[in-house]
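Continuing the batch. This is chain 6 of the set; chains 1 through 5 are on the previous pages. Same settings as before, nothing changed between runs. Recording input and output for traceability.
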Amino acid sequence: MSDNQPMIEFRDVHKYYGDYHALRGISASIRAGEFFSLLGPSGCGKTTLLRTIAGFEDISTGVVLLDGKDMAHVPANKRPTNMVFQSYAIFPHLTVEENVGFGLRRDPRSKEDKAKAVAEALEMVGLKGYGKRAAHALSGGQRQRVALARALILKPKVLLLDEPLSALDKKMREQMQVELIKLQRQVGITFVLVTHDQEEALVMSDRIAVMFEGEIAQLADPETLYRRPNSRKVADFIGTMNFIPCEVLSDAGGQVEVEAKGLGRVTLAADQCPPGKGEEPVVGLRPETLTLLYPGQTTTERTVAGVVDEVIYFGDMTYYDVYLGGTDVEVRLSMRNVPGRPILEVGNDVEVAWSPSALVLFR
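Output for chain 6:
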């Protein structure tokens, strides 16, 4: 494979189930060695798209290429892929090493070589010494690792992950996210993850395709998706975004001037103004880009008076809902709870600092 050839490529892929149009003209490429995520709400087509890579779903029209080869009529067991399912699909009556070595049953290697491969795979996922343990006696996190080891032992070019962490509790899920990132770097193969968890996608991915209703709404790196979403729908789905009504006053010379309710007149650069999608104009800004000024604090940013309407304490962070100076516009902002910084109360008058560079215009 040449350096610039994608590992996976979709060319105008459509999938119908009877009259239902599940995938609607998907065109995208996934690079070799990339950690790529398909992110979207339930029913958006992300798992269907993943299954077209694996060969578990036929496409209606279009082309799916793997490592430069057209996968039309190539069965699942002949593709250079392996999948880790949401349910893990491990065999409870087998030991850990029997589960991991299951795919090697028809492998021509000697028994000793197979045992060595199993041991290496278990060490890779942090389960060294667990080979003789019964699979049914494992925790959820350990079962997930067994499923990973079983998939990786066959050395696929692409590992497909169908919401593999959804059954884990929050702490274990966060731990496994970090371990999966390290594992992907270690083995260097292409990982394609399906998830509906926005934080999970942002944490783990090199690039993310956000999907709605069988289409890719935006494909970008995590920071671009978060800071410069291309539509209100993407912005609303990725994290928390405040939307403030505005009026577009002028649009010339690569800059757009708006009057934002509660914030006043603002000039925005071209990269803050994605192409319009026929929406009512609003400016969006993230909670962490707003700051509460405490007595004696000064700032070079713009400020607006406000009143605290709600206080949500999260331990490391406190979220405040604040009405902006004499308007019905309410924004949510986040403040880190550092020593010496008091938690404010509902009804407190506050000064909110903000920067025009944090705004994104949707229209």
